[in-house]
Amino acid sequence: MGDKGSTTLALHQTAEQFHILVDSVEEYAIYLLDPNGTVVTWNTGAQKIKGYRPEEIIRKNFACFYTAEDVAADKPERNLREAARRGQIRDQGLRVRKDGSTFEAEVILTALRNDEGKLRGYSKVTRDITDQIRSRSSRLRKSQRKKRARPGMTFSLL
Length: 158
Prior knowledge:
The protein is of the alpha+beta class. It has six helices and four strands, in the order αβααααβββα. The N and C termini lie far apart (101 Å). The model has no long low-confidence stretch (mean pLDDT 87). It has a four-stranded antiparallel β-sheet, with helices on both faces. β2 (88-96) and β3 (102-113) form a beta hairpin. The chain has a single domain (25-143), classed as 2-Layer Sandwich (Beta-Lactamase), CATH 3.30.450.20.
């Protein structure tokens, strides 16, 4: 009985530590979806990036994070199907916050399967890359302005 009790305690402590680890990450939205795309868990980073408190978003479909155009094009469901088929997908594009504003996101969607291979749901990790894209665009514009400002070479025929 002692071994079983200590194993159970160790598993509980490991699960608790894992929960603390995931919840402490603020730069990434990390959450679980059920097989239909319903939000099951929600970390602090998800709340910070997307603006929803856990009680506002858990039990809602993740399609609310996509633009109306992406929803009309069936992108949320296609991403789930593709992740289920391939095991994992990476995506980049606009996502929608609770307040309706959009941000550039980098997303990893991973299918989660049990030991028998049955789909149990998905993990989703989202990072707001808006600042990186703005910075890259700004550097590109500066580089283009420098190129235009350089005097061109002139040739003369003598």
